[in-house]
Design a protein that fits this description.
This protein has a two-stranded antiparallel sheet with strand order 1-2. The chain is mostly helical. It has a domain of about 110 residues. The protein is built from 9 helices and 2 strands, in the order H-E-E-H-H-H-H-H-H-H-H. About 60% of the residues lie in helices and about 5% in strands. A hairpin with a 6-residue loop joins strand 1 and strand 2. This is Twin-arginine translocation pathway signal. It comes from Skermanella stibiiresistens SB22. Pfam families: TAT_signal.
């Protein structure tokens, strides 16, 4: 009679399946997984509400719009807010109340939350109406660094990085940015 080995063989496929399952369980145990409604990005959130994170990503894109950049770059810029809000109750309150106010304004004008307003111009008008608030100033000020301080963004926008260690830009093609010449 033949004996059959019923132990689970460790193959690449089984290893990857078990690793993905463990990662999912770990993500659920440590916080909420926030997934973009369009499936372009995902992040974990322990402190801020998932809707808040989605709205912040949309807001960052509206503040610094670039057709060349995917939403993943804006999500990476927003993700640190969750940990910062966990350590700073004042920041958490500022963000949650700011998003709540933004959503209320969007509901009043467009009968939907800010992130669901279809037209970019309508969302920008909502942002302009609150640009004097501390919430808006905080997000705008942080995003100018968080969005543009990603090496992946640099390559998409044509920035070649620091030139000081290579002798400066004069001898490295300071005027070779095609998109700047077209402006």
């Amino acid at each position: 009679m033949r004996t059959i080995d019923k132990r689970l063989k460790v193959t690449r496929r089984n290893f990857l399946k078990s690793g993905a399952a463990a990662a999912g369980v770990t993500a659920l145990a440590t916080g909420t997984v926030v997934i973009d409604p369009n499936g372009a990005w995902a992040m974990s959130a322990k402190t801020l509400k998932p809707d808040t994170m989605v709205t912040l990503v949309r807001m960052a894109r509206d503040l610094y719009p670039h057709d060349r950049l995917g939403d993943i770059h804006y999500a990476r810029a927003i993700e640190p807010y969750d940990a910062k809000a966990g350590a700073d109750e004042t920041l958490k309150r500022l963000i949650e109340e700011g998003i709540s106010g933004l959503n209320q304004a969007a509901q009043a004008k467009h009968a939907s939350p800010y992130a669901a307003v279809a037209e970019e111009g309508d969302r920008v008008a909502l942002l302009k109406s609150m640009e004097a608030t501390p919430f808006f100033q905080k997000i705008r000020g942080d995003m100018v660094v968080a969005v543009y301080n990603q090496p992946e963004v640099w390559t998409k926008l044509g920035y070649e990085g620091s030139s000081a260690e290579h002798g400066g830009y004069i001898h490295r093609g300071f005027d070779d940015i095609d998109w700047l010449k077209d402006a």
